[in-house]
């Protein structure tokens, strides 16, 4: 079976993880640029990253050689607005305009994420996501980006993984801004979701080309444990949407896609967390639902051989994440079942212990196997009629992996951080063949 003829075979990155040039051409610092010391492995920061800012033409040429149909990247808020709000940095706008032109000339669909965790440091000093003004700040920033890029860009995503930059950044203190403030959950949740809503409104108002607007959350997907009986599937759905997975999925998606506050959110934050008018604003139609998915948990029963939400001896990636390829199938199925939107896999991939071998190449058979198995699960969803519009591998190249520094390599392209040389891995050639054959030989 081939995938749909217009299937979006892609790869992704994020500004803070690849661009570098943190203080060049008028860019202001982000929270990651300033706050990382003392919080990351080997005390590594994103200041140079992959130097994509200077090497984007080389990087797009490699994407073209792979035959990518789409490339998802984020815009650095502080490259556009160094202080977060007022003075526009024209050189920042020109960088993204040039990147988009390069992608379009290569036949690659640009997909723009407006926020991927790199809040301008100047806004952090004003309270960041705790400040009730931030939805309006984000809308103003969105307007600038949309006016600059929407003559070439149709695919937009407002926020990447709010459950992570809120949960890990504001409640657990492991990601910037490295806060451990449970009391901030209500205001930050409100402001993040209202920022999403105002950004959607802004995109639709100012886009020059008909926009396709989405969102890129993530969350723990539970798969049926042991069999696919009706009861096991119902239990997996329940765990995904209403128990453990609620904070990550329905917490952030129900208000947006269903116009309602899920019960656990109402219990935790109060039933009045949003006014009826705010819920109406949140509940604006999305053209698709993006989802970042890397693994599944097993909806196990007490006394089974399953432990720690997976099975004993489960294969794992270099991030210690279990390898559970059926996660994509169950994510697509459960998300479409609940929200009725076409699904775009906005991230899926694995970190591996990659290195350059004596032959000068990077051999990564584990990654090839990982992606192959996940694509077979995606194909199953398509065969059963679920509306999957694309698959986006994370990530196009090795990059700065947040609190893990440069120690984890997810890329299809190897980056030598001493020289910035790019070396396509075996997986890049394999993925290029998958794209060229539209998945027909999987």
- State the strand order across the main sheet: 5-4-3-2-1-12-11-7
Briefly note the structural class of the backbone: alpha/beta
From the alpha carbons, calculate the radius of gyration and give it in angstroms: 21 Å
Put simply, the count of helices is: 16
Average of per-residue pLDDT values: 96
The tally of domains stands at 1
CATH class: Alpha Beta
Biggest sheet, in brief? Answer: 8 strands, parallel
Give me the CATH fold name: TIM Barrel
Query: Percent of residues in beta strands?
Result: 5-15%
CATH architecture grouping: Alpha-Beta Barrel
Task: Give the overall silhouette.
Answer: globular
Measured as a percent range, the helix fraction is 25-40%
Any low-confidence stretches, pLDDT <50, length ≥5? none
Counting DSSP E segments of at least 2 residues, the number of strands comes to: 14
Helix-strand pattern: EHHHEHHEHHEHHEEHHHHEEEEHEHEEEH
> What separation lies between the terminal Cα atoms?
9 Å
